[in-house]
Inverse folding.
């Protein structure tokens, strides 16, 4: 059992490190491109050396790398990047109690190089007066520049707190629960969340020890309401602490079945997750010859694992349909999403990758994959993201099957491409943006289900799965 758990955890950790396929980037107008852009945006090869401090030179590299390679970098207003960076710099000075009189930014003109020169001059003048804050100021400035893109596939990988004490690959960290507003949704598109906020899954840790159950309604978080006038509040983010966050979180709960109201204080920590939750693909046979297959992520071998699972379920029986459960699937390899889709349809475009000037490459089905020739229903929710949305939108647009559940996350701006900066940190962002098979925009919008079947607190408390029940009804017709 230990060997099995180790193998599963290793595979799970590998999925978390998966980088999407590389794409060709649009070229910035020559008059606005920097000579730095072509040299700083090197593709990483092999293991990166140890990171060195982030400096204004690294920030410059990232700035021109974005302008020269981000899919809309050729046409974007670069002033938005510098303004966001300067706001973060001054905020950090204020929070540190070390504000500097010279920390004011002149009006920017829109000329990318001149604006950078002006920004750099003020930045150097400010940081020279607070040398002990220079590392922190550089980090928050570059973080803000990347965040200002508002792109769910743009990131800057640097530093990191490392693993918490006692952590083993595949373990969870946090309060030990999942709620009806997912962690990814909190960071990406919280405005789409609907009240009430309730526990959907108890994975272990503090939540399990405190007797929290699925279906329990979360009425307040650290004394703050999760929804005000039907709109989600920032308080929800406290449900998903990341290491090294260790502060306790106080929840006020309501259990509808008994009317009990009580408070619990949960401290984040490491907890061991169930083996089934670590497996990328699980399957079982349901009544009426329906194959149920859950795909938690599009790892490099996900499609083959699904095909093998279905093949095993077919031994000695005739299958009448397939339910693919993609709820909680955060994405992964677009290639694997295409291969899985290709078992249901051939000769079709599954998506388009486009530059800002609408030059698009069609992504085609892999017609070497054998067709399964079975009716399909796909379960989706607000945590189905990226490659999961690639698959779901193609199922819907191409008429391959029916989507059941809730709208997907809307986190599919485009496949992220990595670029190495000279301090050995990694900048990543899409060089082309993703459109669905009907050339529709999915990013920030998501894929709507054909049949909207949301989970309710009573369903969660009773262990009911109304979306799966609806999918089975559709397949049994």
């Amino acid at each position: 059992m230990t060997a099995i758990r180790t193998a599963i955890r290793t595979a799970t950790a590998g999925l978390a490190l998966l980088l999407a396929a590389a794409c060709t980037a649009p070229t910035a107008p020559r008059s606005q491109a920097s000579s730095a852009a072509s040299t700083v945006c090197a593709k990483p090869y092999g293991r990166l050396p140890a990171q060195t401090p982030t400096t204004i030179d690294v920030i410059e590299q990232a700035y021109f790398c974005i302008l020269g390679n981000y899919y809309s970098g050729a046409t974007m207003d670069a002033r938005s990047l510098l303004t966001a960076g300067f706001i973060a710099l001054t905020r950090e000075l204020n929070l540190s109690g070390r504000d500097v009189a010279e920390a004011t930014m002149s009006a920017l003109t829109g000329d990318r190089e001149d604006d950078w020169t002006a920004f750099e001059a003020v930045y150097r003048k400010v940081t020279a007066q607070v040398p002990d804050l220079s590392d922190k100021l550089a980090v928050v400035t570059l973080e803000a520049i990347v965040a200002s893109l508002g792109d769910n596939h743009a990131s800057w990988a640097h530093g990191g707190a490392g693993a918490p004490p006692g952590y083993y690959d595949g373990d969870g960290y946090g309060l030990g629960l999942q709620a009806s507003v997912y962690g990814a949704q909190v960071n990406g598109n919280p405005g789409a969340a609907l009240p009430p906020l309730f526990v959907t899954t108890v994975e272990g840790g503090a939540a399990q020890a405190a007797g929290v159950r699925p279906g329990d309604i979360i009425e307040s978080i650290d004394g703050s309401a999760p929804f005000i006038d039907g709109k989600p509040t920032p308080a929800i983010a406290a449900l998903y602490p990341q290491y090294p966050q260790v502060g306790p979180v106080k929840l006020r709960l309501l259990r509808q079945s008994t009317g009990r109201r009580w408070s619990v204080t949960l401290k984040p920590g490491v907890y061991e997750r169930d083996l089934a939750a670590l497996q990328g693909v699980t399957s079982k046979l349901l009544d009426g010859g329906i194959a149920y297959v859950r795909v938690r992520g599009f790892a490099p071998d996900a499609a083959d694992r699904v095909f093998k699972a279905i093949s095993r379920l077919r031994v000695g029986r005739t299958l009448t349909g397939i339910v693919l459960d993609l709820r909680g699937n955060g994405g992964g390899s677009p290639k694997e999403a295409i291969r899985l889709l290709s078992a249901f349809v051939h000769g079709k475009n599954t998506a388009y990758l486009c530059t800002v000037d609408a030059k698009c490459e069609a992504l085609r089905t892999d017609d070497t994959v054998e067709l399964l020739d079975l009716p399909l229903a796909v379960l989706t929710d607000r945590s189905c993201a990226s490659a999961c949305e690639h698959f779901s939108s193609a199922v819907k647009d191409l008429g391959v099957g029916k989507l059941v559940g809730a709208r997907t996350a809307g986190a599919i701006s485009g496949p992220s491409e990595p670029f190495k900066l000279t301090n050995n940190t990694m900048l990543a962002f899409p060089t082309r943006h993703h459109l669905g098979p009907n050339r529709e925009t999915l990013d920030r919008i998501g894929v709507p289900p054909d049949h909207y079947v949301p989970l309710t607190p009573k369903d969660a408390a009773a262990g009911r799965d109304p979306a799966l029940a609806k999918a089975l009804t559709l397949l049994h017709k």
